[in-house]
Amino acid sequence: AQLGSASDAESIDGRWVDVCLHIVRQVAEALEHAHRRGVIHRDVKPSNILLDWKWRVKLSDFGVSRAVDNTLGVAQTYVGTLAFMAPERIVGGDYSYASDLWSVGLCFATCALGKIPLPQADGYWAVVRAICDGDPPQLDPKDGHDAQLCDATNACLRRDASSRPTAQQLLDHPFVRRGQSIYAAAATERDRRAAQ
């Protein structure tokens, strides 16, 4: 049974930070697994991050993923969902695994804000200009967001792809490490209740 996708996560039980911790850890694990095998997902977005009834996260829709067949891990094709594409993908340049991390950052900014932080109503070219020419979207703790969530999200949304964290570095981020302990506690509680 499917619980939903990360698009729905903001409304689950009012515990946004706990939900985000749980999701981001598993998404980072999935991307680290794919990247280690030379695969760029190329369409990470909230509706492709699925949750089942046990809160297991599945990164879906590898239909546009790319197995990188060179040692640099570089691709050049233009596929995926525009609003979640990294700037280097939109301008048609070479891109690599870091483009998936931009998309992860945008997913979590979108879930934290309750909407995508780009000018969707103004059409295709406004989105292109916002991603390629505007300042990257950022979360700010002054707006009530968890400071570590802001740090992890904003690191993923750095315009310079080489300065974004890798999936493994994201797994090592303090925010994501917090998610591991929350998941373990939730699993223990679920198992305790099931045994009664």
Structural summary, described in words:
The protein is mostly helical and 196 residues long. The chain contains 7 helices and 5 strands. A 3-stranded antiparallel β-sheet has the order 1-3-4. The protein has a two-stranded antiparallel sheet with strand order 2-5. A hairpin with a 4-residue loop joins strand 3 and strand 4 (57-59). The longest helix is centred in the last third of the chain and has 22 residues, at 174-195. It starts with a strand and ends with a helix.
What's the SSE blueprint?
Elements: E1 2-5, H1 16-36, E2 39-40, E3 49-52, E4 57-59, E5 66-67, H2 87-90, H3 98-113, H4 124-132, H5 147-156, H6 167-171, H7 174-195
Antiparallel strand pairs: 1-3, 2-5, 3-4
Summarize the structure.
By secondary structure, the protein is mostly helical. It has helices spanning 16-36, 87-90, 98-113, 124-132, 147-156, 167-171, 174-195, and strands at 2-5, 39-40, 49-52, 57-59, 66-67.
For this entry, what is the oligomeric state of its chains?
single chain
Q: What does the radius of gyration come to?
A: 17 Å
Q: What is the rounded distance between the termini?
A: 22 Å
Secondary-structure class: mainly alpha
String of helices and strands: EHEEEEHHHHHH
The total count of strands amounts to 5
The average pLDDT score comes to 79
How many helices?
A: 7
Beta-strand residue percentage: 5-15%
Order of strands, widest sheet: 1-3-4
Spans with pLDDT under 50 lasting ≥5 residues?
Answer: 9-14, 64-78
Major β-sheet annotation: 3 strands, antiparallel
Binned, the helix content reads 40-55%
Backbone shape:
globular
